Each structure stands twice: as C-alpha cells, then as structure tokens.
Amino acid sequence: MTQIQSLLKEMEHEAATTKKFLSLVPADKFDYKPHPKSMPMKELATHIAEIPAWIKMVLTTEGLDFAATPYVPTPVSSTTDLLALQEKSFDEGYEQLSKATEADFERIWTMRQGDVVFSELPVGENIRHCFCQIVHHRAQLGVYLRLLNIPIPGSYGPSADEMGEYKPE
Q: Could you tell me if 44 and 141 are in contact, meaning their C-beta atoms sit under 8 angstroms apart?
C-alpha cells in the first residue's frame, strides 16, 4: 500500500467517525461554550467540518496567508448543514489527495499571518497535520457533548456510553 493509499483509507475512517460526532450537535446549542475562552459549538463544529477541504488547498496552493485571506467560517444553520459541509469538504479533499503523487508531498507549504509564519512544512506533513486537527477538534467537541449530557460515540472502539457505565478495575 502506498502512502497515498494509506492516507485515503485513514481519511475515510476519520470522516465516518467525525460524521457520528457532528450528527449529535444540536442546533439549539450552537452558541454553547463550556468556558469563556472556548469557541462556541457552532464555530467548533463548522471548523471540524471544513478541515478535510484544507487537504485540497494544501495540494493546490503554495500556502495560506490569513492577512490576505481572513478565515470566514461557512455559514450553517442546522445539523444537516454541518453534515453536508463535512461531506462536501471530504469529497474535495479526498478527490485531490487521490490525484496526488508522492513527489507532491515534498513541496513546502506555508501558513502565515502576514510576516508571521506559523508553519513551513512539506505538503505531506501538512496533510498529516490536517488529520491531526480533525481528531484534536473532534475530541474538543466530544467534551462539549459530554458536558451537555449527550452520549458520545466511540472513535477507535466503543465509548463509555456505548459500553454502559464505566467501571475502573
């Protein structure tokens, strides 16, 4: 299996897991945030749904400058909108990754805010970073759901909710 085939397989798995989490986000709780420094649930969920499309951006551009292109979240007004956004983002990223070559992974891609460089990494590492960001933010979303007493699904096996009450040994 090539590196690209492996990434595509992982992308499919993570998308299915992410879909389970996003499907639980209640639109009537879009403004919920567990702490004043936390982002609202709608913003977090939208970001999670958008990240797979960043793979296309990483493969087709030299970088991203937030000073020139400020981040504007895709508008969503329902859980259905979130799921549609995630599917669209997945399709865009997956299609571009499936057309990539190993040589594409060596080119440097830069994320910056004007003169401030956040990262300057090979494309391949940036794709991995996209995957890590999905998992990281999905875990944050799991905390939001837990605090709202919404049973959470498992990511890499059953969750305590799926197994019943957790009982440490």
A: yes
Domains detected in the chain: 3-158 (1.20.120.450)
The amino acid that residue 28 corresponds to is D
Q: Which two tokens stand for residue 100?
A: 């990539």
Sign of the alpha-carbon dihedral angle for 145, 87, 107, 113? negative
Nearest C-alpha neighbor of 41 from the set 79, 68, 8: 79
> What are the b/e assignments for 51-85, b being 16+ CB within 10 Å?
bbbbbbbbbeeebbbeeeeeeeeeebeebebbbeb
Cα dist from 114 to 61, 71, 107, whole Å: 16, 13, 21
Q: What is the mean pLDDT of each run of 10 residues along the chain (169 residues)?
A: 94 97 98 97 98 97 95 95 98 98 96 96 96 97 96 91 66
